[in-house]
Structures are given as structure tokens and as C-alpha cells.
Design a protein that fits this description.
149 residues, single chain
């Protein structure tokens, strides 16, 4: 049994979470009128708070907030349009070349030494891998921005 009276936190723990309360606190409350009266005061406060209506705004908060949020407009910049156009034109040209000269393309590389082919592959890798890494990091940044938890 405690020599002094219980603190406010101990009494609140008894009132609001009796299951988590230590046995010494419960024993003290059973024997001490002063602390029991304080606990009854907290119980009265809790009962009066439960009878209060839930707080609510008298205006539509969601509508006000939604009006202030920037809208995401689906518009393409001229740079994006040009980039996509160039991409489609390039793919079309590559398709035409492969369609008409596909069998002859292998002849192009027959005269090239292996070291030259490896150098071309290395250069392509040096350009392509950092681009892939940048796209991956951009994706991760956007996912982190979406993660609100
Ligand atoms: Zn006491």
C-alpha cells in the first residue's frame, strides 16, 4: 500500500483503464476515501463528456478544403508532344529499316571486330543504366510522397 495519496495519472488510469491498473493502486483506492472521491470526480467528468454531442463544424469543411486544393490538369507541354512525336517517328523508321533490310543488317556487323561490338555495348550500357536508375529513383520518390503513414 502506498504511503501517500495517488497521483492524478494513477487515478485516471484506474478510472479509464482499470485493466491496466496496478494492484497497489486498486488497493489504495479501496481504503482511501480521499482518493476514491477524486476517482468519482473523474468518473463524473467522463460521464458528462460522453453526454456531450460530437463536435461538428457548422460549415462543410471538406468542400472548403477541396476548393483550395490545386487541380491536376491533364495538359501536355509542347516539349512532351515533340518528344513523343520524335519517339514514334524513330520507332516507325526503325520498323521500316528492319522490315526491308532485316536480313542484311547482320551483314553490317560481320565486318566489325568483336572489340568494337563490346565497346558499343559498353557505351549503350553506360547511357542506358543511369537512365534506368534515374527512373527507378523517381518512382521511389513518388511512392514515398504518396505514403502518408
Ligand atoms: Zn489516497
Amino acid at each position: 500500500m502506498k504511503a501517500s495519496h495517488l497521483s492524478d495519472q494513477e487515478i485516471q488510469r484506474y478510472v479509464f483503464a482499470t485493466a491496466d491498473c496496478e494492484q497497489a493502486i486498486i488497493t489504495h483506492l479501496q481504503t482511501c476515501d480521499h482518493c476514491r472521491n477524486r476517482a468519482k470526480t473523474y468518473e463524473l467528468i467522463e460521464a458528462s463528456l460522453q453526454n456531450e454531442p460530437a463536435p461538428a463544424f457548422d460549415f462543410d469543411l471538406a468542400a472548403l478544403v477541396m476548393n483550395e486544393l490545386p487541380t491536376q490538369e491533364e495538359k501536355f507541354s509542347i516539349i512532351e508532344v515533340l518528344a513523343y512525336s520524335a519517339g514514334f517517328v524513330g520507332l516507325g523508321a526503325l520498323s521500316i529499316v528492319i522490315y526491308f533490310f532485316g536480313r542484311d543488317l547482320l551483314v553490317l556487323f560481320s565486318g566489325v571486330s568483336n572489340i568494337a561490338i563490346y565497346m558499343i555495348l559498353c557505351i549503350v550500357g553506360m547511357i542506358f543504366l543511369p537512365l534506368c536508375w534515374e527512373v527507378y529513383q523517381s518512382y521511389q520518390r513518388r511512392i514515398r510522397m504518396l505514403d502518408f503513414s
